[in-house]
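Aim 2, interim progress. The first record below pairs a target sequence with its C-alpha cells.
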Amino acid sequence: MQSPTHTAAARRTAAGPAGATPPVAAEPGRQPGRRPGDGLEARLAAVTAKMDARLAEAAVAYEVNTAHIETPAIDWSGIGAPPAPTAPLPTSPVPGAPPGLLTPHATPVAALLHRASLRLRTDGWCAGALTDDDGHLCAQGAIRRESAGDRRIEAQAMGVLLEAIRRQFGPQVESVPSFNDAWGNGREPTRMLEQAAILADTRGL
C-alpha cells in the first residue's frame, strides 16, 4: 500500500509542474498553435499576390498590343489660347442726342450720362462752377450741356449719378457738386459718370 505522500507526488507529476497552466484543448477544425486571424491574413496575402501578377500581365499585354501603333508628333508651336472676343459694343441713336451721335446705351438717361463723360474728356474738367472761362465743365455742367435744356432728364441723370457715387464712396457724399469739387482732376468724376451710365442702363432708364 502506497503512502499518502507518494500518491500526491504521483498526481503532481501527471498534472505537470506546480503552478503550470494546463493545456487548452484545440477547437475542432483548428490546427494547434494557430491564431484565429492567421488563415484570413494568409488568404488576403495570396489574393493580393495574384492580383499583382494579373496587373503585371495586363501591362505587358498592353505594351505588346499597342507597340505597332504609330503616334504622330504634334506641332504645338502654332497652337495657342483663342483670341479674346473683340465685338464692338452695340450702338444706337438716342432721342435728344446730337444728330449722328451713337452711344452704347439705348436708354435716354444712360446715354446722357455716357455723353457727359465724353464731354468731360473732350472739353476738360473744372471745379467750383458749372463751366469756367476756358470752357471746362464740372460733372453737373457736362450733364446739363448734354441734356440740351431738358431739366427732367437732367434731374434723373443727377439722381442716378449721386446714387452711383454713394454706392462706392458712402452715404456721406452730400451732392454731385461736392463730390466733383473734392478732386484735384477730372479722372474720378469722369469715371463715375460712366459707372452711373451702366447703372441707368441696367434699370432701363
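The second target in this work package is listed in the same format:
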Amino acid sequence: MTLLLAGFGLLLLWWLGRNALRRSPAGAARLLRRTGGTLALAAAGLVLVRGRPELGVILLLAGLWLLEGEGGLRRRWRALSDRVRGWTRLQADLHRRNPGGREHAEADADPGTRRPADPGAMTQEQAYEVLGLERGASLEDVRLAHRTLMKRLHPDQGGTAEQAARVNAARDRLTNRHR
C-alpha cells in the first residue's frame, strides 16, 4: 500500500512537472505548497495520534509554514503568546481576589470513590425495624415499604447514602437476596 501511494505521488509530480510548470510556474509552486502543507498537517495529526509528539510538532510547523509562510508562523506565535499572557493575568487576578482558592481546590483533587459505608450484618428483627414493618410481613409489604422509604431517604431526594444503604440491606435481608 505504501509503495502504491509512493508511485502515485511520483506520477503526480511527473505530471505537474510536465504540464503545470510549463503553463504557470507561480501557480504550480502555490499548488505544491498547499498540497505539501495539507499532507504535512495530515501526517502531523496521524503521528500525534500514534504517540510521537516530537515528530508531530515538527510536521505541524512544516505544514503551517508551507501553507502560510513565515509571516503566518510569526502571526500565530504572537497570538499564542498573547493568549498565554492573558491566562497568566487572569490567574494572577483570581489569586489576588481569592488568595486561598487554589489551595482549597487542590485539597480535594482526587476525592476517590464515594461509596456508602457497608451497613454490616443485619438481623431479621433489625431489618423489620428499619422498614417499619411487623414480623411476618409479606414480600409485597416489604417491597412497598422499601419503595416508600427510598423515595424519602435516597441521596438524590435529600437523604444520605448511609440511610439508603441501610434500607437496601434491610430489603435484601428480608427478601433473602444477599449480594
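The chain has seven helices and no strands. This observation will shape the mutagenesis plan for the next reporting period.
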